[in-house]
Q: What sequence folds into this?
């Protein structure tokens, strides 16, 4: 099983700043099969990035994903008020599909 | 994108069987994966199982002995059964459409295991 570890646990920032979220895998994630989700309180997760760097439908271009192998990053440039949420990474390189423990982006 | 909606009892007694159904609307179930994912309070998301539109299945090894997933394309539904539940199975259960990554999610349903 591929274990995903996200850091930091909480990121305290202000609107307009840039958030950089890390996701590290216990073994290589083949072909960049890594996704990022945004979750707000009481809501289901929402797909933000798939294939490590492709934005999902309707996701603004201030969201970008990068990385390969075991190290991946989600960057949010110019935080908007609606971006404050918890972000999870997920790998689909191998079964079982697994998620990180989440990073909270807080004001 | 399709819409998904979970349904089922909000409370289950310990040792009993949890049964949930996901109804899919706004599109076909063909050539896609359909998953159940859960999130215990304050914990990370956990993928439980998927069923492909053909009926083939795959399970998380940590739950495989207690879980069955099935699909009924004629009703645009897929279902989850989990036997011998305990308090550790208390979670919000989500159904989702998958292409490896989950691109559509239901709103989730809280299932509490309690006597």
A:
């Amino acid at each position: 099983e591929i274990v995903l570890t996200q850091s930091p646990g909480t990121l305290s920032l202000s609107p307009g700043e840039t958030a950089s979220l890390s996701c590290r895998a216990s073994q290589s994630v083949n072909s960049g099969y890594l996704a990022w989700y945004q979750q707000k309180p009481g809501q289901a997760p929402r797909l933000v990035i798939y294939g490590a760097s492709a934005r999902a439908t309707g996701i603004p271009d201030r969201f970008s994903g990068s990385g390969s192998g075991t190290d991946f990053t989600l960057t949010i440039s110019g935080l908007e008020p609606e971006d404050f949420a918890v972000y999870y990474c997920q790998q689909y390189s191998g079964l079982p599909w697994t998620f990180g423990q989440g990073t909270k982006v807080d004001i | 994108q399709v819409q998904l909606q979970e349904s089922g009892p909000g409370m289950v007694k310990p040792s009993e069987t949890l049964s949930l159904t996901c109804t899919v609307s706004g599109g076909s179930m063909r050539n896609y994966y359909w998953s159940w994912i859960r999130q215990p309070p304050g914990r990370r998301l956990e993928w439980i199982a998927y069923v492909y539109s053909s009926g083939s299945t795959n399970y998380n090894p940590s739950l495989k002995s207690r879980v069955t997933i099935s699909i009924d394309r004629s009703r645009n539904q897929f279902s989850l059964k989990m036997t011998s539940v305990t308090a550790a199975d208390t979670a919000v259960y989500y159904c989702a459409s998958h292409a490896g990554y989950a691109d559509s999610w239901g709103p989730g349903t809280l299932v509490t295991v309690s006597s």
